[in-house]
Amino acid sequence: MFKNTPMYPIFRARHHGSLCDPWRHQNGGNANAKTVKVTLSEWKVRLSPDKIPAGPVEFEVSNTGSIPHALEVEGRSLERKTAQIQPGATATLQLDLPAGRYEAYCPVGKGSHKMLGMLDHLTVGDAQRVRR
Fold it and tell me: Which of 24, 29, 88, 107 is the most exposed, fewest CB within 10 Å of its CB?
């Protein structure tokens, strides 16, 4: 009866339409993490969304540029980054972020990519009530 029914839609339906990924659970990811899609290219960093609730977050980073880039997230005494990402490749960065404002930038070139405009900001929780 269920022979031709894919597992993912069944799993999704049993979880009331959530966007849970059953493979993420098997690979150690956090099912409650908010996803922020990050696009890196010459000389831009784009975050979508750029405001999320506090807690676990998974950055899905794509380098759509023509040279290597990376993503660094900095703020509230935290500074974490991906390895260098080759053009056309992707990377994932998992963090647990308290409320506040964070910089998201490309650290490649000893900061030169950041100075050329590869910088965006992420607001986590109600950052207006949190001291920096």
Answer: 88
Do 38 and 7 share a domain, yes or no? no
Give me the sign of the Cα torsion angle 112, 74, 68, 46.
negative
**Rounded CA separation 101/65 (Å):** 26
70 domain residue, yes or no = yes
**Number of helical (H) and strand (E) elements in the chain, helices listed first:** 3, 9
Is pLDDT larger for residue 32 or for residue 53?
A: 53
What is the spatial distance between Cα 119 and Cα 107, in angstroms, rounded to a whole number? Answer: 10
Cα-trace Rg, the chain: 17
For the domain that residue 56 is a member of, what is the CATH number?
2.60.40.420
The C-alpha atoms of residue 53 and residue 55 are separated, in whole angstroms, by: 6
Q: Which domain holds residue 27?
A: 1-31
Average pLDDT over residues 47-55: 97
